[in-house]
Specification:
By secondary structure, the chain is α/β, with parallel strands linked by helices. The chain has a single domain, classed as YbaK/aminoacyl-tRNA synthetase-associated domain (YbaK protein). It contains five helices and eight strands; from the N terminus they run αβαββααββββαβ. The longest helix is centred in the N-terminal third of the chain and has 11 residues. The relative contact order is 0.25.
Length: about 160
């Protein structure tokens, strides 16, 4: 199970207490915010895209959407999300639990500037009823992110 792998990863890093098993679904931003007890914007959505045949992940604040023009300018490709039935195979986590931790090798992880307004954010932890409570520095570290980017529409 993906949650167990993520939990083990954080435990091996001495940060197992940051992983939250939730009593309610966290499969959408709204459900995750309710289950965690925070505003929806603090949910760090992990979006999965394909550039050609190469998967990437972009984490954004829960209250923003990707701006197709900004995405194309940065990646020189049209924003194409991974089809739901291929996400687990390509990323390593099923939709509803996709996160930047314990993913398949070679996947670049990007953090969107929309997250920078928060001190604490909550990405998923590999299942549809989990989250990880992280500072931005911890998110950068544990996700192995490639870079901060700006690909979202203004709020």
């Amino acid at each position: 199970m993906s949650f167990d792998k993520v939990k083990h990863f954080f435990e091996s890093q001495g940060a197992g207490e940051k992983v939250l098993w939730l009593d309610h679904s966290s499969a959408t931003v709204e459900l995750a915010a309710e289950a965690v007890g925070c505003e929806p914007a603090r949910i760090a959505k992990t979006l999965s895209f394909l550039i050609g045949d190469h998967p990437i992940l972009i984490l954004t604040a829960g209250d923003v959407k990707v701006d197709n023009k900004k995405y194309k300018e940065l990646f020189h490709a049209k924003a194409k999300m991974i089809p739901g039935d291929q996400v687990e195979e390509l990323i390593g986590h099923a939709p509803g639990g996709v996160c930047p931790f314990v993913i398949k090798d070679g996947i670049d992880v990007y953090l969107d500037e929309s997250l920078k307004r928060f001190d604490i954010v909550y990405p998923a932890a590999g299942s549809g009823n989990s989250a990880v409570r992280l500072t931005l520095a911890e998110l950068e570290h544990f996700s192995g992110s490639t870079n901060w980017i700006d690909v979202c529409k203004e709020r």
